[in-house]
Structure formats: C-alpha cells, structure tokens
Amino acid sequence: MIANPSEAMNCNDLENLLPVYLEGDLPGDAKVRVDEHLERCADCRKALDFYRELESSLVERRVLRPSPGRVAARVAERLGIRARRPAFNTWVGVPGILSAALILFGVVMLFIRNPVKEFFVRYEDGLSIRLSPKLGEWVTQISQIGGGGDWVLLTVYGGVFALIMLTGSWMVLKFVRE
Amino acid sequence: MENKGFQTGEEAGLVAKALRGNEKAFRQLIAQYQPMAYSVVRGILGDREDVEDVLQDVFIKVYRGLSGFRGDSKLSTWIYRIARNEAVTAARKRDPSGPPVEELDLQTPARTRPDEQYLQKARQDYLGRCLGQLDENYRVVLELRYMGEMSYAEIGEAMDLPIGTVKTYIYRAKVELRKVMTRRGHAGDRKPE
After folding, report:
1. Mean pLDDT of chain B
2. For chain B, what is the domain count?
3. Is B26 part of any domain?
C-alpha cells in the first residue's frame, strides 16, 4: 500500500492512506512523504478535510442512540420484570417534600403569625409540660432567638421532623437494597 | 459465578444480580452494552423504523440466555453475536417491496436550535443512506467505532477479529464511503496529480 520510500507520493498513493494518516498510524517516513505531498497538493488537502468532516459526522450519529433508560424500561416491561419506581422518590423524596412543606409553613407563619400566635404559645407551654421541664426550657430558649418569633420554633420543629424522616428513610432504603 | 468471560468481577456480580431478578443490575447491564448492540443492529439494518424493537429483542435474548452463559467467549462477543443474529433475522424478514425508512429520532439536547436540528437531521439522513451502500462489515465497524464509542481492541474482542483487521476495515470503510459520496457529489472531488 505504501509507495517506494525513494519516490515522491502521488494522489493515487494517497487515496488509501489519508484515513491511516489522520489516525496517526503511518510510520514516520511515510508520514513525512504524505506531509510533503499535502503541502503542494490542494486536492489532497481537500480530501483530508473531507475525512475530518466525515469523522465529525460519524461521531454526531450518537444523537440517534435511544436512551438506555428507555430501552431498559421497555425490555423490563416485555420480560415482566416489575418496574419499580426509583427508591429515592418513594423513600426519600416524599418525606423530603413533606418536610420542606412544613418548613415553608413555618416561614408563612412569620407573615400571618399574629392570629395564631397565642395558639402556638399555648401549644408550646403544653408540650413543655407533657415532655419534660428541661426540654420545655430548652425549646423556649431557642424560640427566643431572632426576637422570639414562633417561626423560629416552627422551623426548628420542621428541621427536626425532616431529619428524623430522612434518617428513617435512609435506613429503610438501605435495608430494602440489601 | 465464575469470572470466566467477564471483563471484571464487578461485571460477573452484575450478571448474577440481574439473574436473581435485580432490575437495577439488569438496567446497568443494558446501559453498558446498549451502544455496542445498537451499533451492530443499526449497522446491519440501517435507518429502519424497527431498529429499536430489534434492540429490545436483543436484550430479551440476552436476559433469557444469561443463565446459560458459560464464559466460553467474552460477554461482549456473546452479546455481539446475539445482536448480529437478531439484526440479520430482522433483515431477512424485511419486505422487499418497500422497506420502511425510519423518521430519524435525534436525541439532541433540549437547547439545540430548531435550524441546527434540521441540518443535523439532514446530514444524518444523507450519511445513513451512503452508509447503506457499504458492505455490512464496513458499516458495522464504523458504527461500533463512532456510534458505539468502542476502541479498536473492544471491537476486535466483540467481533473476534485481530486489531489490525479492525483498523483495516475502518480505513477501507472510510475510503469506500468517500467514493459513494463522490458519486453523489458531496465529497470534494479531486483531480489526480
């Protein structure tokens, strides 16, 4: 395929060599002679450009590939393998959303707290008595941060609730996976 | 399960889990081998609308045959053969009077502009038709290399060919493709020096 090393290459010699040249697979002396020919031959440079563009177009064909997720879902369906919703959505997503909703509720309370303020204060007192005086004291102290608004208390409750739910979900998820 | 035929112990574990009905493991297996299987099916069938159906058939056969896989060949070689057989069978069933040509479904990123999508589709449509005029082996190696993003060694392993032969196929395929495109007037003709 490679012409006699003592001779200069012509376009016919290059016909089959350009893809090899582009891939960097030509031995040193052949590469030098291809370089020399390309320097003086505009047609072969054009052909080389064609192979470069061809490579890009072939790479671009990847956009035709269907997503593995779609194929897997259809194959699983046809095989009768029960398609489970991703565990993340079930065990972490739902409590996560609920917790976020609770915290959002606390923030909303900041703006409309006056009508319900007394209720929460009473609830806080009752909770303190039912649980333990020490906890009640601690909760009251926290509720004084930032000016003593009930939103602080609600956010803390929401955060604790979220933490408990997410930890529980993580443990269940781990158990299910194993 | 022995690791014979598997690239890694992890792959063997994945197959074992898939066989126990672990859907996640089976999905992972599909994700790993789908580009290769798709390239083979597409290389043989070309731009046909049933390419994805045949691809599903391939993985159904893979799933059903996994328990009998003894590791006499590499897993990739085994899946390659299934993909090739399924595609060849589908090609034989093709209606000679008028094979359906697929309306290309490009999985482009959402941000791609409509005019870019149109040009991309036209380019791929044209390239698909030109590829269709090459020999099957040439089409398949090109698809495996570029669509399947496989190295020469991986292609050689799957097709059970020496790396040198794979390279030769790819170089010749490109030269042949240029000839096809030149005949169609799209490859920048040159006059021999």
Report:
1. 82
2. 1
3. yes
Burial class (CB in 10 A: 0-12, 13-18, 19+), B68: exposed
Mean pLDDT of B12-25: 80
Q: Do B178 and A54 touch (CB under 8 A)?
A: yes
A20 and chain B in contact, CB less than 8 A: yes
User: CA B67, B73, B79, B84 torsion: positive or negative?
Assistant: negative
pLDDT digits (tens, 9 = 90+) for B125-167: 888 889 989 999 999 999 999 989 999 999 999 998 999 999 9
- Minimal Cβ distance to B56: which of A19, A50, A74: A74
CATH number at residue B27: 1.10.1740.10
ipTM above 0.90, yes or no: no
Give the best-scoring range by mean pLDDT among B96-100, B107-111, B147-151. B147-151
A25 Cβ contact list (under 8 Å, min separation 6): B167
Q: Is residue B173 part of a domain?
A: yes
- Look at residue B188 and tell me if it is in a domain: no
Judged by CB atoms closer than 8 Å, whether chains meet at B177 and A16 is answered as no
Q: Which of residues 100-119 of B touch A (CB under 8 A)?
A: 104-108
